[in-house]
Amino acid sequence: MTVIKSTLTRTLLVLFCFVILTACSEDDPLIGTWQEPDSGITMQFKDDGNVVMSNDKTSISLPFTTQEPNTILVKASTDGTIPDQTIVYRVEENKLILTVDGVDSVFSLVK
């Protein structure tokens, strides 16, 4: 019984350390508010899996997921009537570069 308790205690300790280390890992650099300076379009990637896209007149919130390597999949409709949008992204310092159909758009981090 003592051996089982000892093994269980060690296993729980290892799992606890894993959870703590995972929580301390680097935050997702995509999460935050980004603005394209020429158009004024703002994209706010939230950690709840939604992106809010807005300009000075309107706003829309859509679910997104990230995939490897550096790909964002935006769900434009729940029933599939509007195709999902696949966007390649990279974050360099305080810039978010989104690439759609070979065209780059550069967004700056809003602080």
Given the structure, what is the number of helices?
1
Unreliable stretches covering 5 or more consecutive residues? 3-25
CATH architecture, by name, is: Beta Barrel
Could you give a short account of the major beta sheet?
8 strands, antiparallel, barrel
- How many domain regions? 1
Q: How does the helix and strand content classify structurally? A: alpha+beta
- Share in β-strands: 35-45%
Assembly state: single chain
Give the termini separation. 56 Å
How would you characterize this protein structure?
The chain is of the alpha+beta class. The protein has a single domain (28-109), classed as Lipocalin, CATH 2.40.128. Helix content is 20%, strand content 42%. It is built from one helix and eight strands. It has an eight-stranded antiparallel beta barrel with strand order 1-2-3-4-5-6-7-8. The longest helix is centred in the first third of the chain and has 22 residues, at 2-23. It is globular.
Identify the notable features of this structure and list them briefly.
111 residues; alpha+beta; Lipocalin; 8 strands; 20% helix; 42% strand; disordered N terminus
